[in-house]
Amino acid sequence: MATEGAYESILCVKPDVNVYRIPPRASNRGVRAADWKLDSPDWTGRMRVTARGKVAYIKLEDKISGELFAQAPIDEFPGIAVETVSDSSRYFVLRIQDDSGRSAFIGIGFGDRGDSFDFNVALQDHFKWVKQEDEISKQAQTPDNTPKLDLGFKEGQTITLNIGSRKREKARPQGSGGFGLLPPPPAGKLAPPPSKSDNQNTQPAVEEGDMGCLLDLDSTNDNSVDAPISNTTATSDLWGDFDSVTQK
């Protein structure tokens, strides 16, 4: 069953395992670990699970010397070579074989439930890999009859590529919701640019001729304000009409 020249890999190692002699199976019903003498195992040692090619091996060895006590070759899992009991997850039934091909059934058990879980997972992972390898080999041997797409160039066939520079699109003014430039004002309504004198807030220059008029105006205003009105007759004439209107 072993593949010649294949290297041996270690799948799982458990330092404590108990071995039991089990009674012959009376019927096809499941095996119960309660029927064994669980308090007094027949042998105690170390268990190593190895794989060589597609075959796994459960080896029971001495803890100190490493001498092989028994081994069980496993070519499928689950199968007759490894069976679980019906009343516990920590005990299994193994079919051991010697070099001459003789086989016998023994019971093994773990003190910790985690050890039995690791043992079970190691066998499952190995035979999952075996199944994948079988599927890959079958696909390699099966001819592919599906039509293949020919993407190659025919003889004399050419291809032309037009690679040109793309014209850059003109930027379009954004709408009112964007941050683009404002639209230009209507024609004929442009405001004249401010003059330099307006920007600097300077007063217009006064010519010499205007200066004289201003002096005359100031002198007139001073005489009209400060000088008393001596002509009472002119004043009464000016307001006579007003008085005559109001007395009606």
Write structural notes for this entry:
This protein is about 25% helix and about 20% strand. It is an alpha+beta fold and about 250 residues long. Strands 4-3-2-1-7-6-5 form a seven-stranded antiparallel sheet. A hairpin with a 6-residue loop joins strand 3 and strand 4 (about 70-75). It is elongated. The termini are far apart.
Keyword list:
single chain, 248 residues, alpha+beta, seven-stranded antiparallel sheet, 4 helices, 7 strands, 27% helix
Question: N-to-C terminal Cα separation, in Å?
Answer: 150 Å
Mean pLDDT: 76
Helical residue percent band: 25-40%
**Rounded to an integer, what's the Rg over CA atoms?**
58 Å
Structural class assignment: alpha+beta
Largest sheet: 7 strands, antiparallel
Shape: elongated
- Strand adjacency order, main sheet: 4-3-2-1-7-6-5
Order of helices and strands: EEEEEEEHHHH
